[in-house]
Amino acid sequence: MDRAYEPSLADPEQAIQYALPTPDPGTGSMGSGEGSAGVTTPEAVGMRVRKRNGGSEPVDVNKIVRAVQRCGAGLDAVDPLRVATRTISGLYDGATTSELDRLSIQTAASLIAEEPQYSKLAARLLGTYIDKEVANQDIMSFSQSIKAGVEAGLISERVAEFVQENQRKLNDAIDPSRVALFEYFGLRTVYDRYLLKDPHSRDVLETPQYFFMRVACGLAQDPAEAIEFYHLISSLVYLPSSPTLFNSGSQRTQLSSCYLLDSPEDDLTAIYRRYNDVAQLSKFAGGIGLAYHRIRSKGSLIRGTNGHSNGIVPWLKTLDSSVAAVNQGGRRKGAACVYLESWHADIEDFLELRDNTGDDARRTHNLNLANWVPDLFMKRVEAGEDWSLFDPKVVPHFTDIYGEEFERAYEQAEAEGLASRKVPARELYGRMMRTLAQTGNGWMTFKDASNRKCNQTGAERTDGKPSVVHLSNLCTEIIEVTSQGETAVCNLGSINIGRFVVGGEIDYVRLRQVARIAMRYLDRVIDINYYPTAEAKSSNQRWRPVGLGLMGLQDVFFKLGLPFDSERARALSRRVQEEIYFAALDMSCELAEELGAHPAFDETRAAVGKFQWELWDGVEVEDPARWDALRERIKTHGLRNSLMLAIAPTATIASIAGCYECIEPQISNLFKRETLSGDFLQINNYLVLELKKLGKWTPEMRQRIKNAEGSIQSLEELPAELRAVFRTAWEVPQRSLIDMAAERGAFIDQSQSLNLFMETPTIGKLSSMYLYAWKQGLKTTYYLRSRPATRIRQTDSSVSAQPGEADSDVKDYSDNDAVVCSLENPESCEACQ
Amino acid sequence: MLLDPGMDLTLRPMRYPVFYEMYRNAIKNTWTVEEVDFSTDLVDLQHRLMPAERHMINRLVAFFATGDSIVANNLVLNLYKHINAPEARMYLSRQLYEEALHVQFYLTLLDTYIPDLKEREEAFQAVTNIPSIKKKAEFCFKWMDTVQSMEACRTPEDRRKFLLNLICFATCIEGLFFFAAFAYVYFMRSRGLLNGLAAGTNWVFRDESCHMAYALEVVETVRKEEPELFDDELRNSVVQMLEEAVECETAFAEDLLNQGVSGLSMRDMRQYLEFIADQRLGNLGMAKRFEAKNPFAFMDLQDVQELSNFFERRVSAYQVAVSGDVGFDEEF
């Protein structure tokens, strides 16, 4: 029996005629397919659906309407009849009831661009569908869901026992109403990829609420903790990163997001061992950062064979294939980023690895690339001097030093004539910029800023060698030391800051509370985590780093009506970060008091009383007294974690939470997300609300925003303040993003995934921008986002040929034409001149 | 005038800079088949597609196997000869390369999708074996034949014939047959299926959009130069041609969808074809014929800027050409 729809009782509503306009005999047209006036064609009326029990019944519009109505409570702008009629229009005769359910969900989702409330409607319909799928397997409670997971071999014994012992408390804590917090895209993502599935039937064994509780139980030591963490994540104010959501409570608890591997040593065995490490680490949803600084360059002599090396490119080609081959259980593809220091003699080949022309044997389409740039290089660029390139075999010591020590060693090697060759520094810098413009890859990350401002590089290690940061990670927000014996690990989570806006301000008290709870469970992950390699385990236990981040900063600014680059937005972004940093340190100190400081605490800068902001120039804090007090406590108890903050891109978890990603401005007021779950249209709900207030949310307005590729800057009838708030990432000055990142950076002990945006990049603009980013002291930058050179023809606009009256002398351009043509064809648009 | 017979070689002064711009923009969108990752497609084909959907995809790729080759042939045999401006021919040369790239893409696709050699060969012969595909090919050949023997566009009658061929390939073949084919692909992708096919198709779609825009620009240029060519008879022929194309494509859709695909009904597909036909008439500055609205929200999606989650897909949006010198005081 299909539970989505009530049986069709004698119902007065049934008397209403939904049958509709007969097709126009002249054209054979099937009607408009729009509006409540509805559409059912004669064929649809005779259509039948197959039920689960094998029987069949006629398709009934009323049933669908009622099911939609039930889910649409409180959504005043949705039209259940419209969803029902459009659903039927897409159906074929003999479809199953479950196909009908799915189609009604898709139909509701397809209306989101017209009216954002359809997102909630689609989410609720999907919620009902998931509940039914779970209930059909006789799973009626959280503990039954865990039991089913155990039987399917998916749940760890520890969690199984924990739930068994505490089933009453845990079952009672489940709050099914929380499903209402989801937007469609978020719930869809959870359903398609996060909920545990029966290995054979592929039906999901948990509802979204059971899923959150399962994740919480995986990290908790007692029921009170489980319930505390369940409430935190199910209310979407904080979410752990995807690996934790995927694997917490499961048989294989690989909960960390990132692994950073030092460059393999320069020999064949070490190089091949590294491929195995990468495969093991990416198998369970980790992203990989991997340096190649130590590998000899092209033309270097190989003593064993008396031949010459082909340099790093062939090794990277193999890495490329290896990464592509490891597919994380179909849930997400393996991914890696290779770092190379700017003095490495293969740097130019490295910069071409992502080009889509040239010899494919020297291209790596799956690898991400990052430049690990020493200050000296940037200084030479600025001064217009030459830059020497070296074979690491000749200068093996370069990799393990930074700052002045590196500069001395580099200049000495130059003086001794050890360089392979010289290039003008600006020429190489120009090539780096070109790679960024053409591929978005080749990220600029700064070796010296990363080392000087890293808490872990405070002192020599106990074995007398210096601790050095050799690279960042896949998303450039993790800055941790590595060595041959230490693979850096980080587990991440992000606070959804938009949810802390109360009465025109951020609720800082609650923010600190949430940051503290988050820290406790991030720290917990370190002990529960499954480590795919011994190097990862030993490193993580020594340093205990975590990465507490942030998402939804743009939501805050929209809620408060602040332009992204306004003074208030800047001050607020900095304050938020300061509060989170303070709360994290405070909690980590408390954990140290309770459980002991991390073993390498004495090697950190914190051990000598240095906070991150004291490593930046001229930073003053809100309330120095509380920092002094904290410093004293840290002196006594130490810290449980050497690193605590990192702002990750949050792509997937921001989708789940329904907020804007990370610290980023919105990409567009209307855009499409392409994911493994399908394509989803995202519209700026905040803008729609504002436009509704102005009475301007009309189909015409929608079309104009779409034609303008999600920008409202050309819609001059809208108030200027509104347009300033709703600018896109392409329209906000990038200088302000860099300034904000630098101010915030003083309170981030690791780093941030800072994307930069440029509609039409040129070498001149890029070289100015990245020099500025370096001067501001940023540790890392991430993608350069640019836009496609030409676009797909819009299906619903007549762009190029003007209507027949084009013969007349005076052309009448609508705003619409002007917007479209300026985007499609900036050089030759008459309307704009 | 653009259609005057001859082999003009003079680039300066440039008579039609718009074509040169189109050529330059096309260069910026260079992609290669090697960038497309089909790995998840194979899993989808084996495990996630319903039999009815698999049938639909098999037919569809069989159409792709020959579609672009026909367009390329027409370009070489019929368009290049008559569009007499070197800058316009530069664009055509670039388009020819793109058509070859598309052929390569679909060749790789079929080789990947159909492991059985015999089945694969059959797919490549679809144009003779499968009636619904044969019918579409015949439609194309019919409009090629009308100009094939024409040496030069001397008379207004010749020029109208040429225009009909150009309009047919732009609006019916690239603008309707291909757009319909893209709809099936995007329907699958809107549900998270066949991402490799969709990724490549996205690039093909972008190229085809440009080809169509170019052809329409040629039509528009000729219209400005020789408005008298655009008489009622020509207009009527265009309408008839589009009607015929809609019928051909409807028959193809019936073949594809005959096993029932939920969310893609025959009714909606027909309406979509009529909607597209109206769009094409609009592109030509003519009145709508069907007054149909777009029933496919997932096609609407294709107009919207993409934001790829890079863990999941490659970002297909980067520019190829970039210029300028290193400097430190530019605005950003």
From TrEMBL, chain A:
Using the record's annotation, list all stretches that form the ATP-cone domain. 47-136
Q: Where is this region: Disordered?
A: 18-40, 793-812
The Enzyme Commission number assigned here is 1.17.4.1
InterPro entries the UniProt entry points to: ATP-cone_dom, NrdE_NrdA_C, RNR_lg_C, RNR_lsu_N, RNR_R1-su_N, Rrm1
GO CC aspect terms? ribonucleoside-diphosphate reductase complex
Described by its record, this protein's role is as follows: Provides the precursors necessary for DNA synthesis. Catalyzes the biosynthesis of deoxyribonucleotides from the corresponding ribonucleotides.
Protein name, per record: Ribonucleoside-diphosphate reductase
List the top taxonomic levels of the source: Bacteria, Pseudomonadati, Planctomycetota, Planctomycetia, Planctomycetia incertae sedis
Gene name in the database record: nrdA
TrEMBL record, chain B:
Output the superkingdom of the source species: Bacteria
* Keywords of this entry: Deoxyribonucleotide synthesis, Iron, Membrane, Metal-binding, Oxidoreductase, Transmembrane, Transmembrane helix
Q: Name one Pfam family in it.
A: Ribonuc_red_sm
- List the InterPro entries hit by this protein, alphabetically: Ferritin-like_SF, RNR-like, RNR_small, RNR_small_fam
- Give me the reactions it catalyses: a 2'-deoxyribonucleoside 5'-diphosphate + [thioredoxin]-disulfide + H2O = a ribonucleoside 5'-diphosphate + [thioredoxin]-dithiol
This enzyme's EC code(s): 1.17.4.1
Which GO biological-process labels does this protein carry? deoxyribonucleotide biosynthetic process
Instruction: Give the record's cofactor note, including how many are bound.
Output: Binds 2 iron ions per subunit.
- What are the TM regions of this chain, as residue ranges? 162-187
Active site location: 106
Q: Which PANTHER family match?
A: RIBONUCLEOSIDE-DIPHOSPHATE REDUCTASE SMALL CHAIN, RIBONUCLEOSIDE-DIPHOSPHATE REDUCTASE SUBUNIT M2
The family note in this entry says:
Belongs to the ribonucleoside diphosphate reductase small chain family.
Q: What role is this protein assigned?
A: Provides the precursors necessary for DNA synthesis. Catalyzes the biosynthesis of deoxyribonucleotides from the corresponding ribonucleotides.
Give the protein name, as stated in the record. Ribonucleoside-diphosphate reductase subunit beta
Which lineage is the organism of this entry classified under, starting from the top rank? Bacteria, Pseudomonadati, Planctomycetota, Planctomycetia, Planctomycetia incertae sedis
Q: Which gene encodes it?
A: nrdB
